Amino acid sequence: MGRMLIQSGIDFNIPFSVLDPDAHAPCSTIAEFSKGKLTDFDTVMKFGSSCDLITIEIENVNTQALKELVKQGKKVYPQPEIIELIQDKRTQKLFYQQNNIPTADFVLVNNADDVRNKESFLPAVNKLGREGYDGRGVQIVRDKKDLSKAFDAPGLLEKLIPFEKEIAIIVARNEKGEVKSFPPVEMVFHPVQNLVEYLFAPARLSNAIASEADLIAKSIIQKLKLVGILAVEMFVTPEGKVLVNEIAPRPHNSGHQTIEANDTSQYEQHLRAILNLPLGDTRMNLPSAMVNLLGEPGYEGFAQYQGMEEIMKLSGVHVHLYGKRVTKPFRKMGHVTIVDQDIDGLRKKADFVKDTLKVIA
Ligand SMILES: Nc1ncnc2c1ncn2[C@@H]1O[C@H](COP(=O)(O)OP(=O)(O)OP(=O)(O)O)[C@@H](O)[C@H]1O
Ligand SMILES: [Mg+2]
Description:
Layout: H1 2-10, E1 17-20, E2 32-35, H2 41-49, E3 53-54, H3 63-71, E4 75-76, H4 80-87, H5 89-98, E5 106-109, H6 112-116, E6 124-128, E7 138-141, E8 155-159, E9 165-173, E10 179-181, E11 185-189, E12 196-201, H7 207-224, E13 228-236, E14 242-248, H8 258-261, H9 266-274, E15 288-294, E16 301-302, E17 304-306, H10 308-312, E18 317-321, E19 326-327, E20 332-339, H11 343-356, E21 358-360
Parallel strand pairs: 1-2, 3-4
Antiparallel strand pairs: 5-8, 6-7, 6-8, 9-10, 9-11, 9-13, 11-12, 12-15, 13-14, 15-20, 16-19, 17-21, 18-20
Adenosine-5'-triphosphate is lined by residues 104, 125, 127, 132-138, 158-161, 166, 189, 194, 233, 245-246.
């Protein structure tokens, strides 16, 4: 994410400094680079003191340090209080509840015993409050025999939603309060890994559902008064209800395709928002599909890419490699965006890309 944000910022001639714990981070060769822990107060303070404007592309950062930097006159967008609220799925859900934002019913839990005592709430999903990502902090608890899988940590139990679709909307707000959203996209998840496997834009939704989802996304960013971009993940139920799943205050997996398919990319939009520039036109120029390039199971080591030539012969196929040196099963190593006027053609090309391009070691 950071790398694509910088890529976009080069066009605005913005000099970037990057803090990342990995010496070989994808950003390390394209910006002034500091290696350090994002969760360490002193490290973030020292790094932030040398910047004019600070932003993030991961929520797990030391927000105490970011708040202190704001006190010292630095601009930090998204605002540290909002990052803090979003860091914990429990405070996120309470925020939806207090602001009448539709979301799945839930109860807070402190440990596995708490979950075991909520048998009458099943079927449900047990989620870790903090530090879950890429589906790793999510456990479906359908019935009594799944109760042994409960997390023994603070989190929540939320009703299992038999959703028809998962969609996402990326919305942006600048300091002046201008708000613009991207058209909704549709996510198709890997059945086992809980990672987005494909994404289609535009989402196939009725106008009524699409505008309902758009209103929800806009009302969240306005209620938060967030400066930057916000990805809003939502479920569409078989009855046509829209429920918010979770939000992320940064460039998001569900917005990669905006680089090729929309007038303004999510990355440029984020920069426009935090620099208080007019927000860009979000209009979609072509339908698109996005395929995440995940490390092939069974391979771990220096990444090699198989099938690149075959897929690059196709028109409308755009490859993005993130420059991660080492591949591991299901690690996000890159993505491919496919643009095509014809939606059926898109699906065929997306399948071909998925079956042909492999990350091995
Ligand atoms: N209440 C629910 N009912 C049904 N499925 C759910 C529910 N909550 C989550 N899921 C499924 O689990 C996936 C991951 O959940 P969630 O987005 O909360 O976790 P995450 O680890 O933060 O995900 P990511 O980092 O991939 O966005 C969802 O995209 C959805 O497919
Ligand atoms: Mg999610």
